[in-house]
Amino acid sequence: MTTSTSRGRTELRRTDGSPVRVLVVDDESSLTELLSMALRYEGWEARSAGDGAGAVSAARAFRPDAVILDVMLPDMDGLTVLARLRRELPDVPVLFLTARDAVEDRIAGLTAGGDDYVTKPFSLEEVVARLRGLIRRSGRAAAARDESLLVVGDLTLDEDSHEVTRGGTSIHLTATEFELLRYLMRNPRRVLSKAQILDRVWSYDFGGQANVVELYISYLRRKIDAGRTPMIHTRRGAGYLIKPGE
After folding, report:
1. Quick one: which of 69, 141, 189, 238 is 20 to 30 A from 54 by CA?
2. Is 81:25 a contact under the CB 8 Å cutoff?
3. pTM above 0.70?
4. Given phi > 0 = left and psi -120 to 50 = alpha, else beta, which region is 101?
5. Hey, how many other C-beta atoms are within 10 angstroms of the C-beta on 74?
C-alpha cells in the first residue's frame, strides 16, 4: 500500500461549500488512520469506526457523503452494515474494502448495493480517485468553481464547463483548441516549445508535421486576439507563450 496522494486535481466541495465528509469503517486502526490522513489531505472531513454498530451510529451523526466499508468486521459483515446504512442514508455512495479477491465476493458486494469495490493491498491514491468519482456522480459535491477557473488577464477558461470568455465575451473553441489554450494558460508567461505542445496536446510526435502547432496557434489567435490586444506570442526558434494583454 502506498501513501502518495495527488493535490494537482480540482478540489471537491459539498454543494453548500463545506468540506466533503467520508466515513471510514475498518477494524484495523492503522488502516483507518492512513485512509483518514489521505482524505484530510484532500481537504475532506473524515470520521472512522471499527465495527458495524459504530459505523451505523457514526453515519447517523456524521451524515457522510461517502463511506469506505470493510467487508469483514468483528460484529457483523459489511453487507449487513450496508443494509443498515441504507436505512439511514439511502443514497450514500459506498466503496467496499476487503482482502477478498474472488469474483463472487465482488458480485455479492455490488449486488447488495455497494457502488465500487477495492481489494487489499491498494494504493491510497486509487481509493481517493474512486471516491472522487462516486461522490461526483452522486451529485453530493462539485468542483470548487474558483479552482476550476484559469485566468490570464481578461481571459478565463473554466476547466469543468469548458466555457471560455475574454472581457466577458464568450468564445467558442473546438476540443483541440480548448486543450491547447488550457496548456498555455496553465503556464502563463512561460515559453512552450512545439515539441512540448505536441506531447501535451496531441500526445505523440507528429515528426515532420510540427506545423500543426502553428496552424492551431493561428486558429486560437483569430478567436482570442482578433480585434484585441494580443495575448498569444511567438518567440522565434523557441515556441509560444500567453500573457495578459498590455
Report:
1. 141
2. yes
3. no
4. alpha
5. 9
